[in-house]
Amino acid sequence: MPRAVRERQMMDAAVQTFGQRGYRAASMDEIAELAGVSKPLVYLYLHSKEDLFSACIRREAQALAEAVRAGVDPKLPPDGQLWSGLRAFFTHTAENPDGWAVLHRQARSHGEPFIGEVLGMRDEIVAFVTGLIGAAAREAHRDPALADRDVAGLAQALVGAAESLAGWANDTPGVSAKEAAATLMNFAWAGLENLMHARPWQPPVDDAP
Question: Which long-range contacts (CB under 8 A, 24 or more apart) does 131-138 make?
Fold first, then answer.
């Protein structure tokens, strides 16, 4: 069997084991058995348990970021782009629950270097969403100089909400990717649309800064 195929089998087994058992509880023996290989072969190909977990995080993070980018059709209007991106995000996390558990739960709960791998992926998605919302807002405002900083906070909030909602959807029987995406779209789009048309909500004038 080609090395790349064998390595992919071991990575698939590792993602499943880490996602379902957790990093601490997972053992290299379990991963080797699930992959149908010897434990020494796992160490030979993927080195230590820490190295293997880091490799799983990188692979799953790259796959998620690529799925979101591929899911957005730039020819659609702003709401269509956001909808297609959310559909892609929730479809990927629903179809890869073990990979999402590795990214959203396991990596974040075991400190460095694991959390750094996840934050790199998150920063990439936030930057992508910032650009998407910013381009739509600049077009709506007819202001090509509108800074990304003006929408960066919205992108952070949207990505954070999507992450939490994906965890809930995966843990709640019967919640489809389409339903999860529609839930977030209904929560977020009214505010985004108002902002894009220069109708932002403002705090009362007598509120302290």
Answer: 132/72, 132/78, 132/81, 132/82, 132/85, 133/78, 133/82, 133/158, 133/192, 136/78, 136/81, 136/196, 137/195, 137/196
* Per-residue pLDDT, 76: 85
What is the separation of C-alpha 96 from the centre of its chain, rounded to a whole number of angstroms? 11
> Each residue of 102-140: pLDDT tens digit?
888 877 666 567 777 778 888 888 888 888 777 766 666
pLDDT of residue 208: 46
pLDDT tens-digit readout, 149-162: 667 788 888 888 99
The half-sphere exposure of 81 on its side-chain side, counting CA atoms within 13 A, is: 19
Q: Is the pTM of this model over 0.85?
A: no
Tell me the CA distances in angstroms from 208 to 53, 99, 201, one per residue in order. 47, 44, 16
Separation between Cα atoms, residue 146 and residue 135, nearest integer Å? 9
